[in-house]
Amino acid sequence: MAPPDVESFDEFAVFAIPRLRRVAYAYCRDWHHADDAVQGALERVCAAWRRVRPGEAYGYTRATLVRLLVDEDRRAWRRHEITTEDVAVHESAPRRGEPDGDPAASSEADFFAVLAGLTSGQRAVVVLRYFENLSVSETARVLRCSEGTVKSQAHAARRALRPLLTEPVDRGAPR
Questions:
Q1: 3-57 pLDDT, tens per residue?
Q2: How far apart are CA 24 and CA 33, in angstroms?
Q3: For the chain, which terminus, N or C, has the lower number of CB atoms within 10 Å?
Q4: Buried (b) or exposed (e) across 74-96, using 16+ Cβ within 10 A?
Q5: Phi-psi region of 11 (alpha: psi -120 to 50; beta: other; left: phi over 0)
Q6: What is the CATH number of domain 98-166?
Q7: How far apart are CA 66 and CA 144, in angstroms?
């Protein structure tokens, strides 16, 4: 990369990393894995930076990130790292980028926990369609599948999530 390209890529990366981390976390529910995935996506985008159109850098990187996560999910047996919850972490040290104890963060964590029960394709569609607010056609383009596949994956995901996300209504209670 020539020096001007390095500067423009660095500026883009600084701007995009927080949002890309949240997208990756929404998919995999592990901040460390999300950081690794974002780094892997940025490495790939950096190598192709000259071919990336100026106004499409974030979309290109997001597509690279989601494809990387889905491919990795499908080939989980190739992973050499095993993450565990048994690692001792100093309790008073804040963990960078993780939700804190406020109710909104708790509700967000519950949402991410529910997403874990979906298939990788359904999870990718939910993250892109509802977390990133992409259209059906944009989601299909990112995932390199048909619009019908996006619609059927979204429908299956909504069907699976509906009982987990709605509160039961007590119709016998006085108003």
A1: 457 788 999 999 999 999 999 999 988 899 999 999 999 999 999 999 998 789 9
A2: 8
A3: C
A4: eeeeeeeeeeeeeeeeeeeeeee
A5: alpha
A6: 1.10.10.10
A7: 11
Count of C-beta atoms within a 10 Å radius of residue 122: 21
Q: What is the CATH number of domain 1-80?
A: 1.10.1740
CA 30 distance to own-chain centroid: 10
How is the chain split into domains, by residue range?
Answer: 1-80, 98-166
Please tell me the predicted confidence (pLDDT) of residue 60.
95
Do residues 122 and 153 lie in contact, with contact meaning Cβ atoms separated by under 8 Å?
yes
pLDDT value of residue 94: 43
In angstroms, rounded to a whole number, what is the distance separating the alpha carbons of residues 111 and 113?
5
> Which residue in 61, 76, 70 sits closest to 132, CA to CA?
61
Q: Tell me: the pLDDT tens digits for 51-74?
A: 998 789 999 999 999 999 998 887
* Rounded CA separation 147/111 (Å): 25
Q: Is 117 within 8 Å of 156 (Cβ atoms)?
A: no
pTM check: above 0.90: no
Residues 50 and 5: beta-carbon distance below 8 Å? yes
